Amino acid sequence: MFRPSFILSLALSIAAVLPLPARAAAESPTGSAAPGTKPKKFGGQVTVTATGEETSTAGTPAAVTVVDRQHIEDSQIDTLPGLLRRIPGLTVVQSGDAGGVTSVFMRGTNSNQTLVLFDGVRLNSPYFGGYDWSVLPTAGLERLEVVRGPFSALWGGDAMGGVVNLIPLRGSRGLAGNVFAEGGEQGWKRGQAQVSWGSDRLDVMASGFYREGSGTLENSDYSLGQGLVDAGFTWASGSRVGLLVQSVSSRVEIPFTGATTTPRRHQSSDQTLAAVPLSWRMGEHWDLQATLSHVERDFSFRDPDDPFGFTSSDTSADTDQIRVVATHAAGAHRLSFGGEWRSDTVSDRSTFGTNLDGREMGTTGLFVQDLWRVSRKVRLQVGARWDDAGAWGSQLSPRVGLGWRVARSWEVHASLGRGFRQPSVGELYFPFSGNPNLNPETSTSTELGAAYTPAEGTFRLELNAFTTSLDNLIELDYASYAFQNAGSADIQGVELAAGTLLARDLSLQGQVTWLHTENGAGNELLRRPEWSGSLTLSGRLGPESLRGDLTLLWVGRREDIDPLTFGRISTGGFLTADLALAWRVLPPLELTFRVQNLTDRNYEAVAGYPSPGRRFIGGLRASF
User: Fold this and answer.
1) Superfamily grouping for domain 4-623
2) What are the residues whose beta carbons fall under 8 Å from the beta carbon of 249, sequence distance 6 or more?
3) Which of 172, 238, 331, 519 has a C-alpha 20 to 30 A away from that of 610?
């Protein structure tokens, strides 16, 4: 399949041979509920994740955060974890420097209980579930949508905590593009190129990305590359068929494990996604959405010096999926119904032999949803989904949500839903520890929220309270050394977010999350802070040519595991700051500068893994 270097070359080649347009393409729309965005008004952004189709977030009975392209550019953040840290209810845990394994805990749920989508295509690994967020660049993205709360009724398994959907850029009318390069301390290098073109019928966008650097310890280098192409053909009434190809490759060195140095240990991963999305407007009242997709995942581990002889392992985990959704508008109702079919195939081999040899698991899902505009002020969302797999049985996931605009500036919403995470192929069939009798993990969640937005839209205040009860959690039983449905947990939390426009294009936004977690043994869930928050000042800083982004991130006390004794410990909180500035010296040219960990704070997001210190980075962006 295509590799990042190929698509980067393609982007540069297209930029070189196509003529420059007389005018630049229109900039991406602003308007985001995430800290750091610069909307002309707060609220009313577009989401496809909360309802399965393009819908305004205003009145949607769900907690939705949309991060737009302008915010991504102003922050100069290169991978997704940096953006997710600023969103209410999310805890991002990274093992050491950039490139280290990164997990996301949404509303206190496990890291493998958040569904990751790329333009609606599932990315979660079928091997042992979850996703390593360190391998997702921000290059080529139009926006990021985060929907908190259980959405298994729409999207199936792994959506117990919520859904993160990455929406790629598309070519707009005319030709546009940019090239961005930066360098910094500890061997930091980053390069990006992007070109897009569009006409009445055709559109194409190609993006390339590469980043590398060195950690503070021996054998701690890392690299990440991505190639992305999104092309499409549009015909009458806005119908479109597209081709989406993404290829991501990463390599990270591992300097130690516990108290033992590992001078030659490293791991690498490759992910290739190919999808054909179809959006067909079949008439005044009927729409059809369909996606055919294939995702390949390859992971390798090497350590020639391992004293126990585990010197190598190789894993491949592939997914084929078809998703079809029909939508019918009838009066005050918008009824959607459809289905999914997915086939997962996993192979795993190590120094000690073959663990899984092309083990397959198929899953079928059927779902229905009604968006009912009960009145001018009230919306009701009701849906249910049934999933079935011969390996673990079937699961029914209902959801109901109510949104009510109680006054001109006030809206409230309430929701109740069930979610599930199906047992992974590894949990079912891995030799010795696998258990083919496992049942899915399940959750029951409630949410009550309120939002205040004055008519002028220059200020917004949101408050969400939620509860989640987790049952049948899959855990390794050390007595039998096999996975069992033995765990449970209860979670309660409150999210408070506020944003205000200080000037036409300068915003101040902040959020605070309180979280209480307790497992079946009465202990806090690991690495979930009771208190966390962020504050971001972002936008145009006085002169027309100067933009910036200053973010304070606070993570409170939390429980963790001592990497030497493997006992529970309590780790202290920390406050960090990141600064990014961009100065437009000429209409097509920007100088960029940023500082990570501005105060050079010493802290550990994961016990035993020192986080990176202060790093200065400078760059240049050219656009046409």
Assistant:
1) TonB-dependent receptor, beta-barrel domain (2.40.170.20)
2) 3, 4, 224, 225, 226, 268, 269, 270, 271
3) 519
